[in-house]
Write a structure and sequence with these properties.
The protein is mostly helical and about 90 residues long. The protein has four helices and no strands. The radius of gyration is 25 Å and the shape is rod-shaped.
């Protein structure tokens, strides 16, 4: 997988593309990226700025962190259930 471009480079390319001084395919060629890559960057920039509906980078990060935390809490709850079952076995022998 190719190394991602720095955020500053992406912002600069998007800013140039939004000026509409040249066609997108020419801008992409001038910066050495694919036209589809430029289109994706423009879409992501629109989402980040609230122009287009979607999940922002911040929301995506928060959601990913929340899912990790939920997974950890579910594992801890399972350990506690097993511990209670194991310890209650000795208290109530059948």
């Amino acid at each position: 997988m190719p190394k991602p471009y720095p955020p500053e480079f992406r912002r600069d390319v998007v800013a140039v593309a939004r000026k509409h001084e040249a066609p997108l395919n020419q801008i992409a060629k001038d910066f050495g990226i694919s036209e589809s890559c430029l289109a994706n960057w423009l879409k992501k920039a629109d989402v980040e700025e609230g122009v287009r509906p979607g999940v922002t980078e911040k929301e995506s990060t928060e959601l990913r962190d929340a899912k990790k935390r939920i997974r950890l809490l579910e594992q801890e709850a399972e350990v506690m259930r097993r511990a209670v079952a194991y310890l209650s076995r000795d208290v109530n022998p059948k």
